[in-house]
Amino acid sequence: MKPIIRYTGTIAVTAMVAWAVAAYLFGASPADAQPAPQPPSQPQATEQPSPKADSPSSPPASASNPGAEAGSDAGAGSAASSEPPKPSIVEVACDNATPATTFTGPVDGEVATDSVVKFALPPSVDIIPDSQTSAGLEVKAGRTKCLKFTSDGVFLFHSSTKQRGAITARQWYDILVNKQVDDLKGGNFWMPKAVNLTADDSDLMYYAVLGLSLFFFVAIAAAVVFLVVKYRHRPGHKPEPSPAHNDALEITWTVIPTIICVFLFYYGWTTYVRVVTPPTKAVEINVLAWRWNWQFTHSNGVQDSDLHVPVNTPVRLVMTSKDVLHSFYAPVMRVKQDIVPRRYTYAWFFPTKPGTYRLTCAEYCGTNHSQMGITNDGRRAVLVVHEPGGYERYLADKAAQSTKLPPVDLGKMLYEKKGCNACHTTDGSARVGPTWKATFGTMVPLTDGTQVKMDESYIRESMIYPQAKSRPGFPPSMPSFEGQLKENEILGIIAYIKSLK
Amino acid sequence: MATTAQHIDERSEVAGGGDPDGSAGGAGGLPRGIDHGYPDGPTSEPDFLHVTKGVKSWMLTLDHKRIGMMYLFGILGSLLVGGAFALLVRTELWAPGKTIVSQDTYNQFFTLHGAVMVFLVIIPGIPAALGNIIMPIQLGAPDVAFPRLNLASFYLWCSGALLLVGAIPFGGLDTGWTLYTPYSLETKTPVLIAVSGVFLLGFSSIFTGLNFLVTIHKFRPQGMGWFQLPLNVWAIYATAIMQVLATPVLGITVLLLAVERFGHIGIFDPTLGGDPVLFQHFFWFYSHPAVYIMIIPAMGVVSELISTFSRKPIFGYRFVAYSSVSLALLSFLVWGHHMFVSGQSRLANMVFSALTFTVGIPSAIKVFNWVATLYKGDIRLKTPMLYALSFLLLFTIGGLTGLFLGILAVDVHLHDTYFVVAHFHYVMMGSTLVAFLGALHYWWPKFTGRMYSESLGRVCSLGVFFGFNLTFLPQFVMGARGMPRRYWDYDPQYQIYHQLSTIGAFVLGISLFVTVIYLFASFWTGKKAPRNPWGGSSLEWQAPTPPPLYNFEKPPVLHELYNYDDLVEIEDERWERHEPADHDAHEAHGDAHAAPAESAGSGGKADQ
């Protein structure tokens, strides 16, 4: 054979074998295969969860493509993955962390992402992964192994005993929203559980009027039945003479119900004032409702479509709608407030028991009124009251996942970007328009002589209809920002103004 | 004891018989040649059903009785349509999620159920149908004050009904019967067609009210002062005040809604600077008095039924009369209790809550007075009385559950839940519709000349009572447990209550359907009715059965109101008044009303 053919052939065969070995070693699946296999660059090693390197079985975990990672890192132009996929299931030493969940057999389960899961299997049962994504979910029969699921997902497996199962890994706060709602445990026949501090007062009024009503109904029904039976017509029976009116009786049965009604009104009113008046220091959450979903924005910018609140802390909701009327109703809180477009309405409660509770829309808003906030898998939006400390952890964990600015920072940025700084100062000095410093919550005078409180509604109105409530001493030259500010931007500016003490 | 001698004589000349000097009664007065086979014998004039024949004579009639009957057929037909929508709603709610229809179709079902029932059945119900037929006869009058206006009211009702129901083939209505903005401004369903219908229906109501006000003021006979009026007439009077004062607000509200939808003015639309909550104020300013327009005639009817079937005057006549009028006036002050969580100010909430409690007191007074009427009576449990007793129990529940909703703190939890749905069905259906059925059965013999099947009447009234409670009692529980209203899909914890409710709805629906059937069947198979089958004391029982064109054959004789002493039961379901010729027997009763010094019977000569 001519030497050139011999050498080309040898080099080609060697290259192909080397590529095959590298592909096997570094997990290039056909979809991910790059035309030119490249040695894994050093950063890959550190990207793998290294503390687990002491375990001998790490190679299968790396089956999720450093090869592709290498391709995307070096290749930069790869549009396929925007972030490097990490191995989902990693083994950890059981004595390093307390297992959050323990499985003793091949059953379905839900685990929190990044928590340690212990598998303690009986002698004849093993767990074998069913798919590429579940690679790593492997436990030999009769062995005990601790694994950590580092990303959300559904991981399918089967056992040699022919059973099949799935482990669903979710963020810990998402596990709470997926729980069965807790409305009835601790409630009674008449009412769901009471989770709000003022709920006990409302419930007391309810039971009072219920008892009163039952008493009067039974009394009246018994009187009717008794009289109808006693004075029924029978042959020879005639009506007996009786007075046709009795002023004393009339006055009695007018005055007594009136007194009862006065009590019902008075205690109903005083309880109501407590139900709708929040304490001054409350965790504030902004609520945006539209057809047919909720958006809850927290003080650090976290946005979510389920409502997460802390326990034993007053929570105040500032609510508006993007389109038609909605209504925020959490039965366990005994709180309801219509949500009106182009305006803020308020509600507050003081959650007393952690749990997952129903959250409903209570003002007809069209097709999916009965399914506000429903997800693709049929789960409705819920109200989650966290254990102590859980809310702060939720805010931190969720914020870490989001890249949006907190409202105060957003407002500060918009103050400059939208040109508010041309007329409004933040240090108290005068300019074309009123200063923003230390004005939120104060009473401001208007040109017509009245005073109005500078609250969220006032600021919003002034941004959209600046001349609606004009103040003396400033020219009526503020332009309207209607249509130029998104909902979260308006909230950001308001938050910024509030922060300028 | 004078009569409207003048009016009656002019017309009886026209009718071709008659005594020009109007001498009262007596056997030898008038030639009696017309015999349709009624138990009281031949009459001197044909009755109003037969006096003229042909469709045109009905379509262009000026006779209040014929107009009332046409209203009645329209209203019963609308009841069946609204009832069909109700059964569709309840069927869909048998299970969570989709049972028979999609969300959009379901939203149409509950909207049309509400709109048809409220505007076509319950608001016109008792006043337009039975008020028209009976009230002038109770006054001893030949007709209402404005017969042509009366016919116009009827045709406005027909046009309004056609437009409202006619919206269905064009897309229907899915806003809820309350038409709240901004949704009603944005929905693609033909709101303009439906609210045009509502607008016309409003005018039907206004003209009827006006007619009745003038009739009651001007057409009473000499000797019938205000406190000699039957309580039914007091109730219709109070209703007429509300119809005339409140309904124009409805007209303007729907007009503004239509203008906003069509012309984008910016009254309610928030994107144009309008206030959506303003619509709620306008809407409820009419709709709260409207619910009193529904209940007060029902209360008037119940007064008549309880009095007649206990053989006793209503206890506390003046209190009952005054309470009707005070309810009519107070009803204008409480509309905000429908809006406690709408974003209304706390001050407004406090004021409306306080006023709402005041409006509950007159109703309570009436219930106590009715119960006291039963004491020492002689109670016959005929079908109308069964309905009246059902009313007492169901209205008590409806009224008491209204208290829950008037208490601000509790309303925050219960608003827009099934608790409210159950409450208003207890007052609108359990009270108003039940009283309507009682009135229908009470006066049916008078204006049709036929008796219906009493055994079917009793069975169906029990079916209505039982089915109604089975339908709506579980809804109170559901609502307090947090089930919102107008929901197509619901949490499975509520399913058992929904299923009980659906079963009850079908029992109720079947009973109502059978009721309509046997009532209509009586036209062919019913026994011919005597003049006074129940022994009623008011003037309509002196008119022939069925009445002639101008209601009376000879001028009616005014007797003391609600005095049953002279009425004697000839046989079951046939009574006659024996003139007090046997004075001894009269005094032997020792009846309380004869001596003016004692607490007298209601009204009459002794002024209280």
What this model shows, in words?
The complex is a heterodimer of chains A (501) and B (608). Chain A contains 10 helices and 21 strands. With 501 residues, chain A is α+β, with helices and mostly antiparallel strands. Chain A has a 5-stranded mixed sheet with strand order 11-10-9-13-16, with helices on one face. In chain A, helix 5 (199-230) packs antiparallel against helix 6 (247-276) and helix 8 (407-417) packs across helix 10 (487-499). The radius of gyration of chain A is 34 Å and the shape is flat. The model of chain A is unreliable at 28-84 (pLDDT under 50). With 608 residues, chain B is mainly α. Chain B contains 17 helices and 2 strands. Chain B has helices at residues 5-14, 55-59, 64-92, 103-138, 147-166, 183-186, 191-218, 231-263, 276-310, 317-330, 346-374, 383-406, 408-414, 418-448, 454-480, 495-525, 583-588; strands at residues 567-571, 574-577. Chain B has a two-stranded antiparallel ribbon. In chain B, helix 12 runs parallel beside helix 15. Chain B is globular, with a radius of gyration of 25 Å. The two termini of chain B are 19 Å apart.
Features:
heterodimer; A: 501 residues; alpha+beta; five-stranded mixed sheet; four-stranded mixed sheet; 19% strand; B: 608 residues; mainly alpha; disordered N terminus
Low-confidence stretches of chain A: 28-84
Instruction: Count all strands of chain A and give the number.
Output: 21
In the sheet with the most strands of chain A, the strands line up as: 11-10-9-13-16
Helix % of chain A is 25-40%
Supply the helix-strand structural class of chain A: alpha+beta
In a few lines, what is going on in this structure?
The complex is a heterodimer of chains A (501) and B (608). Chain A has 501 residues and is an alpha+beta fold.
